[in-house]
Every structure is written in C-alpha cells, then in structure tokens.
C-alpha cells in the first residue's frame, strides 16, 4: 500500500496495490496489520456504512463529539466524489484547515480521517457509492455539523448550489459549534 501525505499530517491518502488483468482486478482494501503500520496506532473499526448519492449531492460536514468521536476510513466504489476533511481540534496547528481529495472507483484511493475532523463529500459523477469504516458507533446525541459553505473555511467545493439534506442546510459555522479541545 502506498501512503500519500496531505497538507494536514494526520489525514492520509491510502493507495492500495491493485492486481488487474483482462478478467478484472483484485486488491486488499483493508488489512489490520498494514493499517497499524501506516497509522501508527491500533484502530478498531466498529461500523461500516454505505451510501448512494446522485450528482451534485453534498453530504456533510459531519462529526461526533467525544466520547463518541469517530475516525473514518472512506472510499468511493462507484463513481467519483470530492472528499473533504476539516481539522476541528482547537489545539491543533492546522485548526480550521481542510484537505480535499478526489476519490473514485477508478483511482481506488482511500482517505484516513482521524477523530477530531469534520467530514463531507460532493458527488461528481452521475451516481456514487461511498463506503466508510468508523471507529465508533453513530450516536445522534453527539452528532454535529458544520455548514458546507462556511466563509471562514473557504472550501472550494467545485459547485455553488449543491443538493443538501435539511440537516446539512442547517449546519452551523465553525466559530459557533462545539468542537474538540
């Protein structure tokens, strides 16, 4: 597996070794030992999620507060998305900064987003199926969101009018939300 650093050191792009021929392809999408070597700490995933969305849908920016904070290993298995992680750790040197990565069925890249980050993605293809493993269970009482177009974050989402859920339309600005210390 190839590991690609991002502008935020804790967020990593993981590129699997793909074996392909005229029959198709095979790759190992997750291996606990390799992940431990790459991340440098023991991670236990407890939940797998799968979403399907159409072009122009933006989901996020979501996170959960401690003690239910979630690390996420995300990938797109059908289509293409623009995936974003925002550092919301107040004590971090990269607080309020974001990383954006194109994830697609074609490039097979994955993104590791540790606890302390808000996460969202925009669907670029006609349809996208998105998978993510989480380090904690979904907990509605700890669930929070930052509005996708927060002017302080200046995220270049590549669109000006995405399709949003009611929940995501009502997200708060980073300066107004409960975040990590």
Short summary:
The protein has 181 residues and is mainly beta. It has helices at 32-39, 166-169; strands at 2-5, 12-15, 18-21, 24-27, 47-54, 58-64, 72-78, 80-87, 98-104, 110-113, 117-123, 127-134, 143-145. One of its GO terms (cellular component) is cytosol.
Descriptive account of the structure:
The protein has a single domain, classed as Jelly Rolls (Sandwich). With 181 residues, the chain is mainly beta. It has a six-stranded antiparallel sheet, with no helix packed on it. Strands 9-8-11-6-13 form a five-stranded antiparallel sheet, with no helix packed on it. The radius of gyration is 16 Å and the shape is globular. Helix content is 7%, strand content 41%. Homodimer.
What are the main properties of this structure?
mainly beta; globular; Jelly Rolls; 13 strands; carbohydrate metabolism; 41% strand; five-stranded antiparallel beta sheet; 181 residues
């Amino acid at each position: 597996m190839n590991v690609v650093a991002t502008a935020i050191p804790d967020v990593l792009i993981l590129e699997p070794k793909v074996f392909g021929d005229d029959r198709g392809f095979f790759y190992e999408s997750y291996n606990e030992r390799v992940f431990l070597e790459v991340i440098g700490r023991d991670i236990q995933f407890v939940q797998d999620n799968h979403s399907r969305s159409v072009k122009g849908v933006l989901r996020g920016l979501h996170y959960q507060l401690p003690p239910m904070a979630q690390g996420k290993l995300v990938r797109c298995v059908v289509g293409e998305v623009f995936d974003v992680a925002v550092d919301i750790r107040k004590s971090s040197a990269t607080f309020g900064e974001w990383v954006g990565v194109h994830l697609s069925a074609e490039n097979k890249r994955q993104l590791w987003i540790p606890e302390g980050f808000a996460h969202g993605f925009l669907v670029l293809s006609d349809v996208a199926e998105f998978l993510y493993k989480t380090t904690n269970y979904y907990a509605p009482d700890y669930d929070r969101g930052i509005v996708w177009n927060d002017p302080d974050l200046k995220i270049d989402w590549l669109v000006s009018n995405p399709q949003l859920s009611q929940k995501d339309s009502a997200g708060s600005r980073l300066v107004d939300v409960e975040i990590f210390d």
